[in-house]
Amino acid sequence: MLAIRLPELIEARLLHLAQETGRTKTTLAREAILECIDDLEDYHVAEARARKNRKTIPLEDVEKALGLAP
User: Fold this and answer.
1) Which residues contact 6 (CB under 8 A, 6 or more apart)?
2) How far apart, in whole angstroms, are the C-alpha atoms of residue 32 and residue 37?
3) Rounded to whole angstroms, how far apart are CA atoms 28 and 33?
C-alpha cells in the first residue's frame, strides 16, 4: 500500500486523463510508476555494465594521437 500527496496541478492532470481514458487514477499511477521503475532499472544496469567495461585513456595519449601535444 502506498499513499502519496500530489500537487494540485498533477492531481488535476491525472483526474482529467482518467476521465478521458475511462481508467482509474490508481491504474494510471500504477502504470506510470511501473514504467518509470523499468526505465530506471534499465538505466542502472546499463550504467553498471558501462562502468565495468570502461577503458580509460589518459588525456596526454589522446592529445598525442591527435597531434595536439607539443
Assistant:
1) 14
2) 9
3) 9
